[in-house]
C-alpha cells in the first residue's frame, strides 16, 4: 500500500494518525512545507520506505527500520533533522546554533573589554606615577633653590637674584669655572655684576672680587659676615688684629705694614659705590709703591681708620 502526498504544499506538523496505518508500505511526503518533528510511527509495522525531503522538519528520526534503511535523499533539504543516516548529523552532537555563536561572541567582547580596561588602568597608573614623581622632583629642586637663595641673602641684598645670577654666570656651575677644590667643595671664579652692587659690567667689577679675595687671604676664612656689615658702626669699630688669621703667628712690624696696606686697599675695593673704587691698575701701583703714606702700623688700628685712608 502506497500513500503519496508529495508536492501538495502541505503545512503544519505530520499528523500522528499516520501511525495507525499498519498496512502502509510506502509514504511520500516530499516537497511540502511540513514542520516540527517526525512522529514515532511505531505501529506502522509494514512501512518499508519513506520520503520527507524538501520540508521544514527538524529533530531526530524515529527508531524505525524504514527510517534506518531509508536513502539519504529521502531526508534532504530539511531544517534540522538528525539521526544515524548518512548526510545527517548525529543527534548526540551539539551543533553550534546562532544563539550559541552570539553568546560566545558576547563573552569574547566582554573579555576584550576587560583586557582593554585593565591595560588602560595600568598605563594610567604608570603615567600618574611618573607625573607625581616629576612634580616631587620639581618641588625638591625649588626647595633647594630657595634654600640656596636664602644662603646668599646674608650679603644684605636679594639672594634670589644672586643665586640665579651665579647659575647664569657659571653656566650652571660648569667645571670650566672651577679654580680649586677643597674640603668644603669647589671654588668657582666668575664676574658677577650684582655682587659688585652694579647692574652694568664696568672695569670696577673685578676690583670688588679682588677685595673679597684679599680679605679672605688675610682672615683665613671667607669674609661673608664682615662684607654684610661693613657700613655699620659695629664693623667700623673692629680692630685689624681681631680679623687676622689666628692660625699664623703675629706679624712683625714690617709684615704689619704690608697687612695694613693690603686691608686698606681691599676695603677701598669693596666700596658700595662702584665709581668710588680704585681701578686694578691703581691697586697694582699702590701695592708696589705706596707704603710711606700709611701711618705707623699699630695693632690697635680699626676698620674705621683703614676706610678713611686715602688710597
Automatic annotation (TrEMBL):
Single Gene Ontology MF annotation: ATP binding
Gene3D superfamilies membership: Ribonuclease Inhibitor (3.80.10.10), Transferase(Phosphotransferase) domain 1 (1.10.510.10)
Enzyme Commission code: 2.7.11.1
Signal sequence interval, chain numbering: none
Keywords: ATP-binding, Kinase, Membrane, Nucleotide-binding, Receptor, Serine/threonine-protein kinase, Transferase, Transmembrane, Transmembrane helix
One Pfam family recorded for the sequence: LRR_1
Transmembrane region(s): 107-132
InterPro entries: Kinase-like_dom_sf (IPR011009), Leu-rich_rpt (IPR001611), LRR_dom_sf (IPR032675), Ser_Thr_Kinases_DiverseReg (IPR051420)
Uppermost EC category: transferase
Domain of life: Eukaryota
Catalytic activity entry: L-threonyl-[protein] + ATP = O-phospho-L-threonyl-[protein] + ADP + H(+); L-seryl-[protein] + ATP = O-phospho-L-seryl-[protein] + ADP + H(+)
Protein name: non-specific serine/threonine protein kinase
